[in-house]
Amino acid sequence: MHKLNQTFLFIYSFVLSIAFSVTLIILFRNLNSTKKSFTEIEAQQIKIVEPDGTLRMIISNSKELPGVIVHGKETEKVDRPQAGMLFYNDEGSENGGLIFSGAKNDSGQVVSSGGSLSFDRYEGNQEVQLIGVNDKDNNFAGLMISESHPIQKTDPPRIWLGRNEDGSSEIALMDSLGRKRLIFKVLENGKSSIGFLDQFGKTLNSIAPTQNN
Predict the structure, then answer these.
(1) Which of 97, 91, 167 shows the shortest CA–CA distance to 126?
(2) Residue 16 pLDDT more than 50?
(3) DSSP states of the chain
């Protein structure tokens, strides 16, 4: 009987050791797996990085959205009350983003509504921006193309294509200082015109459509 008990204990220990080893192997493989599958992820901020750790994108709520990041380090604090995504170039420096918001105050007024998708010049500010705002203070939407000068620290707008506060649709071409010089416009009532402006914003000439009888 004593010998039988020893044999049973040996077999039991052997089987338990194998089961324990298999469990460790499975657990180790799962921990080192490069692919995870989730039905749902809830997070306040998600960072996308390259294999070497270089930052390429941040998806964040309004509280965790960082300031300006250059070469992977935050160099400037900026007010960003919206949620969205920030894009980073191959060097981990910000080069655009997507932000959006929408809220009413206690009086029922829309105080924040709209979004912006922008792309920056290398080591400069935004050159292309698709923007739409519709709240109690602003009401416009369109495409803005700017000329970013990293050295001069100026970013004059060069082209605006969109809908203005007054309900008109407009294509405006600006000079290198951001001054409107040529405007194609259609008013809310349907009247259209082409205007030529000087450097002070004064209309030099305006062309309106003619109707043949």
Answers:
(1) 97
(2) yes
(3) -HHHHHHHHHHHHHHHHHHHHHHHHHHHHHHT-S----S----SEEEEE-TT--EEEEEE-TTT---EEETTEEEE-----SEEEEEE-TTS-EEEEEEEEEEE-TTS-EEEEEEEEEEEPTTS-EEEEEEEEESSS-EEEEEEEE--BTTTTB--EEEEEEE-TTS-EEEEEE-TTS-EEEEEEE-TTS-EEEEEE-TTS-EEEEE------
Give pLDDT, residue 52. 94
Tell me the two tokens of residue 115.
């979004």
| Per-residue model confidence as pLDDT tens digits over 122-169 | 988 899 999 999 998 899 999 999 998 777 778 899 999 999 999 999
Segment 56-78 shows an average pLDDT of 93
| C-alpha to C-alpha distance for 179 and 7, rounded to whole angstroms | 95
Identity (one letter) of the amino acid at 39? T
Half-sphere exposure of 42 (CA within 13 A, CB side): 0
* pTM greater than 0.90 (yes/no): no
Q: Write out pLDDT tens, residues 33-63.
A: 667 788 999 999 999 999 999 999 999 999 9
**What is the rounded distance in angstroms from the CA atom of residue 31 to the CA atom of residue 12?**
29
